[in-house]
Amino acid sequence: MYQKIIIIGNLGKDPEMRYTPSGQAVTSFPIATNRSYTGSDGQKVKETTWFRASAWGKQAEVCNNYLHKGSKVYIEGRLVPDATTGGPRLWTRQDGTSGASFEISVTTVQFLDSRAESESAPGGEDFVASDDEIPF
């Protein structure tokens, strides 16, 4: 059996790198994907889905060095189910509504920002999130 998930999105905040007790680097970062469509009532609807990505080893170090909040990335990996729910991680927002996020163990990452964009100030026009909107 095999599974693969492919995501193109923007980082919701700067990556965070740490090391396992055995000394292996792991970098975690939230990625948001956005979708817009017109609902049955004719209103424009914007939908954001959050993913928690974890890169390992040398790839973790590269991600930590070159990605920042707002960076656009292409990610391939596998879904890692929440140990409690067996599915996405469930949480409650500050306003009391429910939310869910998905964990991805990254196997491939491609930086999609141009060199000029990555050297400019962090952030992007495609996605802007306040820290209150990031679920983790």
Total number of beta strands: 7
Shape: globular
| CATH uppermost class | Mainly Beta
Can you tell me the CATH superfamily? Nucleic acid-binding proteins
Topology pattern, helix = H, strand = E: EEEEHEEEH
Radius of gyration: 16 Å
Largest sheet: 5 strands, mixed, barrel
Output mean pLDDT.
85
- From the 3D coordinates, which CATH architecture would you assign? Beta Barrel
The percentage of residues in β strands lies in over 45%
How many domains would you count in the coordinates? 1
Q: What is the CATH topology?
A: OB fold (Dihydrolipoamide Acetyltransferase, E2P)
Q: In what order do the strands lie side by side in the largest sheet?
A: 1-3-4-7-5
- Structural class, by secondary structure, is mainly beta
Helix proportion range: 10-25%
The rounded distance between the terminal residues' Cα atoms is: 30 Å
Q: Give the low-pLDDT segments.
A: 120-132
Total DSSP helices: 2
Structure write-up:
It is a single chain. By secondary structure, this protein is mostly beta strands. The longest helix is centred in the middle third of the chain and has 10 residues, at 57-66. It is globular. It has a single domain, classed as OB fold (Dihydrolipoamide Acetyltransferase, E2P). It has helices spanning 57-66, 115-119, and strands at 5-11, 16-19, 25-38, 44-56, 72-80, 89-92, 98-111.
